[in-house]
Amino acid sequence: MTTEGQHAARRVELIEVSPRDGIQNEKVVLSTDDKLELLRRIHAAGLRRTEATSFVSPKRVPQMADAEAVMAGARAEPGHAALIGLVLNQAGFDRARAARCDEINVVVVASETFSRKNQGAGIADMVAAASAILAQSREAGIPASVTIAAAFGCPFEGEVPAAKVLGLVESLLPARPDEIAFADTIGCGVPTQVRELLAGAKALDAGMRLRCHFHNTRSTALANVLAAVEAGVHALDSSIGGFGGCPFAPAATGNVATEDVVYLLERMGIDTGVDLQMLIDTAGWLGDRLGHPPMSGLARAGRFPAAA
Amino acid sequence: MTTEGQHAARRVELIEVSPRDGIQNEKVVLSTDDKLELLRRIHAAGLRRTEATSFVSPKRVPQMADAEAVMAGARAEPGHAALIGLVLNQAGFDRARAARCDEINVVVVASETFSRKNQGAGIADMVAAASAILAQSREAGIPASVTIAAAFGCPFEGEVPAAKVLGLVESLLPARPDEIAFADTIGCGVPTQVRELLAGAKALDAGMRLRCHFHNTRSTALANVLAAVEAGVHALDSSIGGFGGCPFAPAATGNVATEDVVYLLERMGIDTGVDLQMLIDTAGWLGDRLGHPPMSGLARAGRFPAAA
């Protein structure tokens, strides 16, 4: 049956962010071997792009201190997903290029206060820095996406108007990113916002690949996934087990869980190419290593219908 | 902005089920006074219909043993929401009528196995019993709704085809219920199912009031709420704090949390008439009494934007 609002999307790409956003704020620092095992499991489950690590200060983010070793180990695997390195500045990009990331992802923040606290620079400076990195990445032949953080709301400034976020998109387009992602960093977004941002971005550049990054902090993540998929989003970030909180969102649950997204989409007839049971098993495995249980519905309640 | 799929609903009615579905499986048996305090808080928050209790065997459901006392106490309050009594059989209806419920809700189950395990009778017998109760309720001038449980899936039989659920709707229509509710008893439903059931029910009786009852077991509850509201549902069940699991869905989270529903809808510009902060406060109060914290995003993470 097709009803209004139910679009013809038959496949959505999932980008697995557990190796970076999922674990970066966890107290337990995973060994490089455990990170490589996680990346192996991600590939085995059918996920074909993953945010493998970030090239940031090891003093600020100790969990990511072994970024180069993770990249080297993951690249040595006979099969692996496209390995995305997150970068925040020129130094990070230089490291990511040297480590031979398959893709890079650069971040700008949609609120001035959050940008200064998180990145140490205001929006205009970060757009200039991101644009310079995007140009170098293009020159080096490395696909590059840009994530607009706090695109649905800011922990310091409150509401972030869609017009402001779309203004940022416009200012980034001359640098020709391969993909633009809207991130609900603190998990406050609702479907009307998702629709407004995606429609607005399409109006600015009909050919741009669009991606969304949701957190389930206020239980709205799968409603936002539904709205995004039906508004024609190309890709979604998600994190096995639902791990990954924002340090500015206290007591928050984490990223939307990959297994919950796969359950929703597959049961709606939308292909993800991912093995649900392997995700659930990996959520449990990762929870054991991190010392607390996964936060996904599927890891708690199991599949439906029960596996044969 | 209006995009495809975003309908013009500007108000949705919420039916608060914490006093019945929310607490019936909790280990801690609340005092009658605590139940009356919960009902006072429900009314004060702006909720105007509530499943106040159920008239079932106190041996089977000890939490509901004081149904008559709860009804008497709640009716004595200067202001109270419409008090709905859940009934499963003739004896329950007789008690609900004697206790002067403002409404009754009768249940049938969409799967034969679940019906026999939960109600002790098969579907056909339950439809006949429900129809007899609906007729008596109409005669007595008591509004009556019917809930179709396991309408999105069964813990024993697995998938429940929409055609089967809509067949049940058809068999109940001659008894002229005032409202029909589709319940995702074990929290396995997805938005395509919501749309198919609501569109199918409208096709059978365009004037029928339709209601949905979701559980967040597999994190899909707010996606289902979104689909239901945009498909024109009249009312939604929800439970403060997200309390209330199904005994057949082990380790499940509970009913969709009222505060999460209100957050989603109000932020999308859909009026609920409910005070979000009072819900969050009541979720904490109820959690203290039940001995475990609420399971809602809003109770964990707080409002956004932060209250002034």
From TrEMBL, chains A, B:
Residues 12-280 form the Pyruvate carboxyltransferase domain. GO terms for molecular function: hydroxymethylglutaryl-CoA lyase activity; metal ion binding. InterPro entries: Aldolase_TIM, HMGL, PYR_CT. This is Isopropylmalate/homocitrate/citramalate synthase. It comes from the Bacteria. GO terms for biological process: ketone body biosynthetic process; L-leucine catabolic process. Transmembrane segments: none annotated. It comes from Pigmentiphaga litoralis. It holds the Pfam family HMGL-like. Belongs to the HMG-CoA lyase family. The lineage of its organism: Bacteria, Pseudomonadati, Pseudomonadota, Betaproteobacteria, Burkholderiales. Keywords: Lyase, Metal-binding.
